[in-house]
Amino acid sequence: MSSRHTAVVVGPLVAASFSAVLILSGTAGAEDGGPASSKGGKVVDEAPAGVKLTTLLPEKISVDNGSKKTAITATVKNEGSKDSGKIRLLVVGFDGLVVKNVEGCSAIPENGLPEGSNSGFACTVGNLAAGKSKSYSVDATYDLSKAGKICLPVQTGDGKKTFWQQGPVPFGTTNPSPDAPATPLLLGTDNKPVSPGGKELAETGPARDLLPLGTAGASLLAAGAAGMWWSRRRVPGRQAG
């Protein structure tokens, strides 16, 4: 997996041609997410008239301190008055959060992953009717010695436009519990990782320092140009899996 420092996606997303390969069992936190939230989301390209696409993530997940497994529900929703047309959802992991499987979706090959990410899946949503939503079960692992983030872009089926992007948004805790069976993490919270010894907190620095964009600044966390990396350098002829 990539070890590149920046979490900005500048490379092309290559549509996967193979199915998701790993389904985790015994995952922690599958049912304790509480209310869903669009925190960290933003409009990128303008959607067609009458179409309003957003995504939702659980406010809370729980990571098994032994297996590092967790579960996340990723939801895409059309809050508009008209059908969306063909769209796809991407689920991408950064830093300590590694996406292992997304039910019904295809893994993005390593050479097609966004720069700075460590894993990703492409989900062919198809046409989402007005007022409807579709949810995907995400199996992941979270290394609690690191910060961890997830990103949910919603694109046209061919990947040329990104209508909405949630993240990269962190899951984390400011009160780690290394001796407990599981650690609850909150959406939009910068993680304060526990050192390998399990007793001292690691130096993490400001959360925003984790997502630099070189000379262009941290645009993934800003409005406007955020998310343009999903479409600008798309490989011609490639389509969503």
TrEMBL record:
<feature type="region of interest" description="Disordered">
    <location>
        <begin position="172"/>
        <end position="205"/>
    </location>
</feature>
<protein>
    <recommendedName>
        <fullName>LPXTG cell wall anchor domain-containing protein</fullName>
    </recommendedName>
</protein>
<keyword id="KW-0732">Signal</keyword>
<feature type="signal peptide">
    <location>
        <begin position="1"/>
        <end position="30"/>
    </location>
</feature>
